[in-house]
Design a protein that fits this description.
Layout: E1 4-14, E2 17-25, E3 42-44, H1 51-63, E4 72-73, E5 77-78, E6 84-91, E7 103-107, E8 115-119, E9 121-128, H2 129-135, H3 141-151
Parallel strand pairs: 1-6
Antiparallel strand pairs: 1-2, 1-3, 2-9, 4-6, 5-6, 7-8
């Protein structure tokens, strides 16, 4: 079954410069990864679930903050894993230092029998388009490029 995610590409204009909000995945696998590891806040949803509602829920779960506004649907993108990401752009401003992410649990270290909890998102940030293109996972680059065309 094809996995599908829904997410929010939050953006703002600061000093006439377009910035986007990205999140960095938590946990041991991404601890030392930076360029090409960041993402829009997103998560999986099931058939029959309204994708925009799922995107808003995932944003709140990953950041601890709700987002409202005029959501603009972007073209879906397909990540290397085959997962299709539905995304909406919305203008807004949140404090990237005040995120509170939900937790996930894995066996760590592997085969140790110990279960450890990690935040799904360990940090977030606002980035100019050029820097965001370096930070975001390659499969989501099209979202930033489409937003850039819509806004500039």
């Amino acid at each position: 079954m094809l996995k599908q995610s829904a997410g929010i590409l939050l953006y703002r204009m600061t000093d006439e410069q377009l910035q986007v909000f990205l999140v960095h995945p938590g946990g041991p696998f991404f601890r030392k990864k930076d360029e090409g590891a960041w993402s829009i806040p997103k998560g999986e949803y099931v058939d029959g679930e309204e994708p925009l509602a799922a995107a808003q829920r995932e944003f709140e779960e990953e950041t601890g903050q709700t987002i409202r506004g005029n959501f603009v649907k972007l073209q879906p993108v397909k990540q290397k894993s085959g997962k299709v990401v539905q995304a909406w752009a919305v203008e807004g401003d949140i404090d990237h230092n005040a995120i509170i992410s939900n937790l996930f649990e894995i066996e760590w270290p592997p085969k140790s029998g110990k279960r450890v909890s990690f935040p799904e998102i360990d940090r977030a940030g606002w980035f100019t388009i050029d820097i965001a293109k370096q930070k975001i996972i390659p499969g989501q680059m099209g979202l930033i490029e489409e937003l850039e065309k819509l806004i500039t």
